Design the sequence.
């Protein structure tokens, strides 16, 4: 009997068959990521895959029965995948898995367009916690929706297809950065400097009228902006005011890629938290279970989980109530007997920045899905602290299926901290624990995860649903 705990590295333990399964799963995950950069993209892709797996749209007024497979897209940005089991839902509850599908990015302001000195720009307002200097001089794609007057919705997606143009935020050249370099990194690039270049070709039509006009007058005329607006109008039928009824954002352009000679790791935008959303979705789509199982893709986690599509919304309760009502069960009983894993990324131990971590309690790359009994900051504020009994249940569940997992605390105590949606589910009276994939460079435009860890979380989700 081994009396000492020792963390295991999945790549060290894996035989060839396991390695093949890990690498194959990673291909599916990358394909999902490439079309799921925003919560809208992820929800639409989940609905598409659910439909393909025989899931049908959910209705709050329907009576569900064992064997039913349903999906519910809440306002395009939050999706619930439900598989109704054969167990008595009042006594067995629901096995709930929650992950968020919004990621840090640059939203367009309501009046984003302007022209200055011959270049046309979008003004942005960053979404989520970012290190602003990381978001300059990288290729950005524009994604989202615009509402035209009368209710027509136009989808915009430019920058990710081969041959598409991209958008770009400039930074000062090193030769002139003496002043900028003397500032702390949080101040080096200001929020109001995150302006993306979107055009440089002026309208030519009334060149004659320009003769004799001074530079100030020319700028006022906004010739490049006029030209860009004309292009937008031709392509989408929109005018400038329509930006005020839009949700458009700039996200890092490009596809997920392997990292390293051995391809053991994945480079991508938005691992936080699609790297947890994808495994939980696959667990629900792939496996039948006697339990009633629900996977939730949440929105607005990066800004506090508020609003109709965030996990503080009553909508999740309404879905649970609908399931309970289908079987004449008391929804209080259903919630009390439900179990939840809140799947969100945790900070992976980064050897280059080891001073920010406490080595014994950090999550390590390739050592499996990391269980965080609590998250939060300082004296464990703003967190769900999972009870020992529930930790014991999770341990037994994962161990019974041979899942390699580890624990994770988000950095050394006084270095900062962070929270996720676990507490909002726990506040409903549902046992909940955090589990997630360790990430390096979290919230950077491109993040790093291990193929072994996303597969470990998939195994953990399957074990939890079984
Ligand atoms: Mn997250
Ligand atoms: Mn995050």
Sequence:
């Amino acid at each position: 009997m081994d009396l000492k705990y020792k963390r295991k590295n999945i790549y060290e333990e894996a035989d060839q068959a396991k390695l093949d399964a890990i690498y194959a799963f990673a291909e599916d995950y990358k394909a999902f990521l490439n079309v799921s950069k925003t919560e809208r993209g992820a929800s639409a892709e989940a609905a598409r895959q659910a439909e393909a797996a025989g899931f049908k749209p959910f209705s709050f007024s329907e009576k569900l029965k064992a064997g039913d497979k349903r999906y519910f897209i809440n306002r395009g940005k939050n999706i619930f995948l439900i598989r109704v089991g054969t167990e008595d839902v009042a006594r067995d509850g629901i096995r709930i898995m929650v992950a968020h599908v919004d990621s840090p990015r640059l939203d367009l302001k309501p009046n984003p367009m302007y022209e200055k000195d011959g270049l046309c720009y979008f003004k942005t307002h960053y979404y989520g916690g970012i290190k602003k200097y990381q978001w300059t001089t990288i290729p950005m794609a524009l994604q989202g929706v615009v509402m035209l007057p009368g209710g027509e919705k136009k989808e915009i997606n430019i920058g990710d297809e081969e041959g598409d143009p991209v958008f770009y935020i400039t930074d000062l050249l090193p030769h002139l950065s003496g002043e900028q370099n003397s500032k702390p990194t949080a101040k080096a690039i200001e929020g109001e400097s995150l302006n993306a270049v979107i055009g440089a070709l002026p309208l030519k039509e009334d060149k004659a009228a320009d003769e004799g006009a001074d530079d100030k007058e020319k700028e006022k005329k906004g010739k490049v902006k006029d030209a860009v607006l004309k292009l937008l109008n031709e392509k989408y039928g929109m005018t400038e005011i329509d930006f005020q009824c839009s949700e458009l954002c700039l996200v890092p352009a490009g596809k997920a890629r392997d990292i390293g000679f051995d391809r053991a790791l994945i480079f991508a935008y938005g691992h936080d938290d699609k790297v947890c959303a994808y495994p939980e979705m696959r667990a629900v789509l792939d496996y039948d279970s006697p339990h009633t199982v629900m996977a939730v893709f949440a929105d607005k986690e990066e800004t506090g989980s508020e609003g109709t599509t965030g996990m503080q919304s009553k909508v999740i309760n309404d879905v649970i109530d609908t399931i309970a009502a289908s079987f004449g069960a008391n929804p209080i009983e259903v919630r009390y007997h439900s179990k939840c894993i809140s799947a969100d990324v945790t900070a992976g131990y980064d050897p280059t920045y080891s001073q920010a971590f406490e080595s014994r309690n950090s999550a390590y790359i390739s050592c499996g899905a990391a269980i965080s009994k609590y998250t939060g900051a300082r004296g464990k504020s703003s967190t769900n602290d999972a009870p020992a009994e529930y930790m014991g249940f999770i341990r037994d569940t994962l161990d019974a299926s041979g899942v390699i997992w580890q624990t994770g605390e988000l950095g050394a105590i006084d270095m900062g901290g962070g929270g996720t949606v676990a507490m909002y589910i726990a506040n409903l009276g549902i046992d909940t624990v955090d589990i997630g994939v360790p990430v390096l460079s979290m919230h950077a435009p491109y993040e790093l995860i291990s193929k072994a860890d996303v597969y470990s979380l998939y195994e953990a989700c399957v074990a939890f649903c079984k």
